[in-house]
Specification:
The longest helix has 25 residues, at 108-132. The protein has 2 domains: 25-91, Arc Repressor Mutant, subunit A, CATH 1.10.10.10; 96-244, GntR ligand-binding domain-like (Four Helix Bundle (Hemerythrin (Met), subunit A), Up-down Bundle), CATH 1.20.120.530. It has 13 helices and 2 strands. The model is unreliable at 1-8 and 245-256 (pLDDT under 50). It starts with a helix and ends in a 14-residue tail after the last helix. The protein has a two-stranded antiparallel ribbon with strand order 1-2. By secondary structure, the protein is mostly helical.
Length: 256
């Protein structure tokens, strides 16, 4: 016993010990619900048992259940409908990214970092798409570019075609990991598109860029596709920077 105590004493002087973090009951409840969602025991749209029943099943108090549900609701994983109950969220990427969009809205630095991340990822996605893209995808992109040409005076409709254009390229890369990352980055760029759509001539430049990207993809040229996408993203970033100047903003354009 004395030897053990001495060893413990020596160890305490030889190395630091981090404090043991106590996980609250609410956090444990949240983790249990997350596990059930991840494993499919709770499915999108499924209603959770009433708060009282859930607390009884988990062997915890109602305040812990209430706190866990509120936390998961803030993340978009659960939906609280007044008078109806609590439901599992859709788990669609677009909805799950909403909390991160708020962070980007509040911090200009994160938007700059987002542009940097897109510049790293999306040119590579375009290059990979050039080697995998189908004739059907090319036809889809041609249709979307035609839509953009038609709706140059309608920023909201143009933006929908713009989103579909990028999503088609991301899907065409046929790499699930890159698809997940690139889609997340693109969806998080919603704020920059709302701002840049108000800069004079930006939609025309985006249309021109998209045509160059499409030409490279149709030629199945990875290097040209990556170059065209990189140039497009740089111009979008520059347009966002220019939006800080009121003189660059066109009165009456939609804030989409």
């Amino acid at each position: 016993m004395v030897a053990f105590a001495a060893a413990v004493c020596l160890c305490s002087h030889a190395m630091p010990f981090d404090p043991i973090v106590q996980v609250s009951v609410a956090e444990q409840v949240a983790q249990r619900l997350l596990t059930m969602i991840r494993t499919g025991l709770l499915k999108p749209g499924q209603q959770l048992p009433p708060e009282r029943d859930l607390a009884s099943m988990l062997g915890v108090g109602r305040p812990a259940v209430r706190e866990a549900i509120r936390g998961l609701a803030l993340l978009g994983l659960l939906r609280i409908r007044q008078g109806e109950g609590t439901f599992v969220g859709s788990l669609e990427m677009r909805e799950l990214l909403e909390p991160l969009e708020m962070v980007i809205e509040l911090n200009a630095g994160t938007l700059e970092a987002l542009f940097d991340a897109r510049l790293v990822i999306e040119p590579g996605v375009a290059a990979l798409a050039a080697t995998h893209i189908s004739d059907a995808d090319i036809a889809t992109l041609h249709g979307l570019v035609d839509d953009e040409q038609t709706f140059l005076d309608d920023p909201e409709t143009f933006s929908a075609a713009d989103m579909a254009f990028h999503e088609t390229i991301i899907d065409a890369c046929e790499n699930p990991f890159l698809q997940s990352i690139a889609n997340s980055l693109y969806l998080l760029g919603k704020k920059s598109r709302r701002v840049t759509s108000r800069v004079g001539g930006v939609l025309e430049r985006s249309l021109q860029d998209h045509r160059c990207i499409l030409d490279a993809l149709e030629s199945r040229n990875p290097e040209q596709a990556a170059h065209a996408m990189r140039r497009h993203l740089c111009r979008v970033r520059d347009a966002y920077a220019a939006s800080a100047s009121p003189a660059e903003v066109v009165p009456g354009t939609s804030d989409v």
